[in-house]
């Protein structure tokens, strides 16, 4: 993505180039080994010279392009801003994934500790039942059920340990570390979001999401780009005026000596006018295509706005559900104690 941002920044300079003067210098050298001869009244006359040197300079400056140069530069600038917003979206997604995986590791560690405690309790229960059977107070069914429970807890503890390894590997991959790199994590699951602590309501969160989400901003930027593309295509209907300056110097001699050589020079300036008359409906077709693309982006923007609103509401519901479940589980623990 950084390379795409750098490329779009360089594209701005490319878009500016048609508005700047275009200067060309050409040099030509010819050595005529055999000159053309004409015969007049029996006399042979050679035409031309053995050495011929020419130098030409051409300057062209666009004076009016129907808004094409300005629209091209604007499209390049908007594209650069859009690429930067896409990069911001990618960075935010990576940060969110890293944080989510970080808490996945903490949850996996907590679940593993609970699994170890459950396995320990299951083994102690099995030992107690076996001791009761030795004194004739337990049944074989209770022992079999306890053994099955221990086997189930062993499987759960293995799965919990494997989940720790997998979540750690995922976290290392997200932050760009090798799988063999040692990593220690410090943290807990008692974090409280700022919006929870301040009691921000749903409408405020939706408003913030609609105005700060980089993907929404990038799509709005794409909408501006498509509007400029329409202006760019419409500029093909306008005439184009260029200022032209040209100069030429030429030297012809039979001996290659620069000193005391005579150069013939000429300079000329003028204006070039190009008026489009008929292009086989190409311009109209390209304008219609650009307008269709603009409508497509408008529908995509509307769909994304609805999706963002749904994501905010869904996340709020999940947070409320999680908070309620935590309260219920705490109550269960208190009653169990």
Question: What secondary-structure arrangement, pairings included, does this model have?
Answer:
Blueprint: H1 2-16, E1 22-31, E2 36-40, E3 43-47, E4 51-64, H2 68-134, H3 140-174, H4 194-198, H5 202-212, H6 214-234, E5 240-253, E6 264-274, H7 282-336
Strand content: 15-25%
Helicity range:
55-70%
Coarse shape: elongated
Low-confidence stretches: none
Structural class: alpha+beta
How far apart the termini lie comes to 54 Å
Task: List the main descriptive attributes of the protein structure presented here.
elongated, four-stranded antiparallel beta sheet, 6 strands, alpha+beta, 7 helices, about 325 residues
């Amino acid at each position: 993505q950084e390379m795409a941002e750098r490329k779009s920044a360089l594209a701005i300079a490319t878009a500016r180039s048609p508005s700047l003067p275009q200067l060309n210098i050409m040099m030509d050298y010819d050595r005529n080994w055999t000159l053309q001869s004409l015969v007049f009244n029996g006399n042979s006359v050679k035409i031309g010279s053995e050495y011929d040197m020419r130098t030409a300079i051409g300057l062209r400056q666009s004076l009016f392009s129907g808004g094409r140069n300005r629209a091209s530069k604007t499209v390049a600038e908007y594209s650069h801003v859009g690429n930067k917003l896409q990069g911001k979206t990618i960075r935010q997604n990576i940060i969110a994934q890293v944080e989510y995986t970080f808490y996945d590791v903490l949850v996996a560690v907590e679940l593993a500790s609970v699994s170890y405690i459950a396995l320990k309790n299951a083994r102690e229960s099995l030992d107690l039942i076996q001791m009761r059977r030795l004194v004739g107070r337990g049944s074989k069914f209770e022992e079999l059920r306890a053994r099955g429970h221990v086997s189930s807890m062993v499987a759960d503890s293995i799965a919990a340990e494997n989940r720790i390894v997998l979540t750690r590997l995922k976290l290392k991959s997200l932050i760009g570390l090798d799988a063999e790199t040692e990593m220690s994590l410090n943290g807990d699951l008692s974090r409280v979001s700022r919006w929870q602590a301040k009691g921000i309501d749903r409408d405020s969160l939706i408003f913030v999401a609609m105005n700060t989400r980089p993907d929404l901003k990038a799509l709005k930027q794409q909408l501006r780009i498509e509007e400029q593309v329409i202006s760019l295509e419409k500029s093909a209907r306008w005439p184009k005026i260029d200022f032209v300056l040209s100069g030429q110097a030429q030297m012809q001699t039979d001996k290659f000596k620069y000193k005391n050589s005579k150069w013939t020079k000429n300079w000329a300036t003028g204006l070039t006018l190009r008026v489009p008359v008929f292009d086989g409906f190409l311009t109209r077709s390209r304008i219609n295509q650009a307008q269709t693309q603009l409508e497509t982006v408008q529908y995509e923007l509307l769909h994304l706005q609805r999706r963002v609103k749904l994501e905010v509401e869904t996340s709020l519901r999940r947070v409320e559900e999680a908070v309620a479940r935590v309260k219920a589980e705490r109550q269960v623990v208190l009653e169990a104690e």
